[in-house]
Amino acid sequence: MNLSLAAPSAFRGNLLVPLSRCTSCFKLDLRFQHSDGFRHSRCRRSLFKLIRDPRRRGIACSVTEPDNGSDEKEKEADKNGETPRVEDSSEQSIPPPVDAEQLNEFSDENKGQSDVQNMDDSNEVASGSPLPGVKPQKLDEAIKIPKETIEILKNQVFGFDTFFVTSQDPYEGGVLFKGNLRGQAAKSYDKISKRLKDKFGDEYKLFLLVNPEDDKPVAVVVPRTTLQPETTAVPEWFAAGSFGLITVFTLLLRNVPALQSDLLSTFDNLNLLKDGLPGALVTALILGVHELGHFLAAKDTGVKLGVPYFVPSWQIGSFGAITRIRNIVPNREDLLKVAAAGPIAGYALGLLLLLLGFVLPPSDGIGVVVDASVFHESFLAGGIAKLLLGNVLKEGTAISINPLVIWAWAGLLINAINSIPAGELDGGRISFALWGRKASLRFTGVSIALLGVSSLLNDVAFYWVVLIFFLQRGPIAPLSEEITDPGEKYVAIGVTVLLLGLLVCLPYPFPFTEETITSF
């Protein structure tokens, strides 16, 4: 009787085959065939002697393999057309049988080796990768995770108490593990990270993320050498300084109405720029406090920020600053702290200066004369103006206000624009921290679409949608652990920032006079 089994040629051992009945002992001539999951040079013919074991409900199989001498005899007999005589092995000592548990362990080990071999043969990134922001790169074999390390990760770093691995896929130079998360994500991440560091030091980086394909937790382990920050051709400080100087010029220009109608005349009337200095300082102060809030929160959470790039604008002086995050943010709550700290600081100072502008009379007794309808452009500014000015604010009537109102309003508008929930803006990072990556991508798409429609009527919206699309579209770089939601206190802060942005940007729809309300 011939049976074909997938097993290595060098196999020697004993098997226990559980059977309900055993009526006789018989010999099996097994020819082992090559299996993709094992590496071997030759496959030999072996003899199985199945002997009933009265102490167990099973059959003990004694396995032997002919030596080289018997191989030669076998070849000779094959040439002569004879069947070689097989010596009875019943006289040999029978080793103790191997039970079913050992057989299962042997099978599991072979299966694991086969899985690792298949992983090694595939260099493609798994589809639906949960690590956006990490650009694909051609990796040398030297920085790919070895098969032995993968086994240690599966059996010793992960575990039943943290993350039970069920399958794995290649990811760049690392591995994406799918499985079942046990307990709280933050605690499990800390345990896995500690074990990973104990085994391999700082050689590998762990991410605990949400798979965008099925919204289930996944763990990704990659060599840290694949996470090196990108370098720029131009030094960062030089580019930031150049943008800063241009922004100073546009802030001054924006506060000199005489030069805004003819920009080319600015170079012939540079002395007029000094008239825009007070307004430029107030707006720059709000921008500076905004960035200071980011850096203070980043220092508290261990997040490293790059040099801020101030974006110039001849409409409102500046579009704010683009600040890169230079390292991996630990979790969504830390990202929320850093992202919301800037707008909160900017809004606080801007609102204080706006209120002072409405309360304090102009220093020259005249101030800035504007039409009352200008306050319809912002729900927040219009509501405060109606509350503080009362019946003085009438439709179609010119009103004299302290220029501090206009300067503070510009600072609030810049904060509001940065609070749009899109891409890598402060608002985009806040929405990501509040509701996760998938929701953040949806907010980005909706925001860009709405800005695109608004750009048909407003040139500021047009330039801002271009800026987001080309510079701040994202995606946001992966966090170390993206599963745990932020605390309720920080959720309230994030939602407040988004609401304030809406209140500043949305128009004030109600009329300013009672007569209009009655006739309406």
Q: Could you please describe the fold and organization of this structure?
A:
This protein has 520 residues and is of the alpha+beta class. Among the domains are: 80 residues, Gyrase A, domain 2; 213 residues, no CATH class. Helices cover 44% and strands 16% of the residues. The chain is built from 15 helices and 13 strands. A 5-stranded mixed β-sheet has the order 1-3-4-5-2, with no helix packed on it. A hairpin with a 6-residue loop joins β8 and β9. α5 packs antiparallel against α7, α8 packs antiparallel against α10 and α8 packs across α14. The longest helix is centred in the middle third of the chain and has 28 residues. It is elongated. The protein starts with a strand and ends with a helix. The relative contact order is 0.08.
β-strand percent reads 15-25%
Overall, the morphology is elongated
- Percentage of residues assigned to helices: 40-55%
- pLDDT under 50 segments (min length 5)? 1-96, 98-129, 133-142, 515-520
Average pLDDT over all residues: 75
What is the N-to-C order of secondary-structure elements (H for helix, E for strand)? EEEEEHHHEEHEEHHHEEHEHEHHHHHH
**Total strand segments:** 13
Spatial strand sequence of the major β-sheet: 1-3-4-5-2
- Ends: how far apart? 100 Å
Radius of gyration: 36 Å
Structural class: alpha+beta
| Biggest β-sheet strands, sense, barrel | 5 strands, mixed
- Helical region count? 15
